[in-house]
Amino acid sequence: MNGRGRLLRLLPTAVALVAAAVLPAAPLTAPVAADCPAADPSGAVQAGELTAPVAARACSLGGVTVVDGGLAVRVPDRDGEAVTAAASGPGRHPAMLTVVRMAGTVHARIWRPDGGPLGAPHAPFSRFGRADGQPAEQPTEQPAGPPTGPTVESIRTPPVVAPPAVPKTVRCSDGAGAWLGTKWPAPYRWTLRLSGMPAYLGAPGPVRDAIRAAGDAVDGGRNDCGFTGGLALSQRYTGETDRDAGVRADGTCGDRDDRNVVAFGPLDGGLLALTCLWWTRGRTVEADIRISDAPGTFTLDPTVGCTGSWDLEGTLTHEFGHVFGLGHVSYAEHGDLTMSDGLPACSAGFRSLGLGDYQTLRDQYGPG
To answer: Domains of the chain (ranges plus CATH)?
Structure first.
């Protein structure tokens, strides 16, 4: 076949290819409305709409705010990332919200006190939380190797006994613990913003010392149970800062900025404190804490003239527990532990770790 024949034979194919190139692409099929969560007028999505994984791109969920009660988390922009918000507040309050973006989907996990819908409030105490549908007596298995996403709290109740020389108390005989599925691969270096500290707390020095003591309690594994071995985790206070924590007054965990900040500031809904963790595939990359600046909320010495205030150091010991990956155990069943979902007012008894708090950190980080 001569060159002219070959050209004529190929011409229809070439024309078809050119036509395909210039025709506008057919529009992508829009996701079925029932498959995507409905947003409220502000564009936020209720966490209850995301308890099963939902396609991130098809539903345009990147950067969307996910809300539950007084907590809110912004959906991470990148696959494999997660954000956890843990709040404390007097009386009844949703306690923890985790939003993970993994394998092209977005999934929310909601923690509520005592594993179910909120009921009548207890006597005033700081209520934290636990995962929906996860009773304390029903342990869940930890996956082998590093966690790859947020897990339901792993509840452990090992038969560990405190040394005989230490009086046996409930706090030192309760081995329950809960793990969030993420930990620091390196020392946690943090700064403190004192510019928003409320005046009623007095001079900034003792306030700073109380917050630093809380971090040291978790870092050093301080306990009243006679365990002297440290923990293979580390935190370091690196000074004061003018930066604010990445936690908004409305209870939203915002965008991470690769700075770990503890700061006072307004918190809506009567929250005492709110910790936000940003993490990826089981490794925490940032943690910020916002402490309420509402008048009279905290005291530096709950043993003197305290009426309805919370111990600042004890509250922050709990929050630093979250920083290092501790979740919550039920106040009703494990109320003497620092990481229970309740903290009594006017008590200095939570400035150190209980047996389960200590053992859970030791299990995850190892002995120091």
So the answer is: 50-136+151-365 (3.40.390.10)
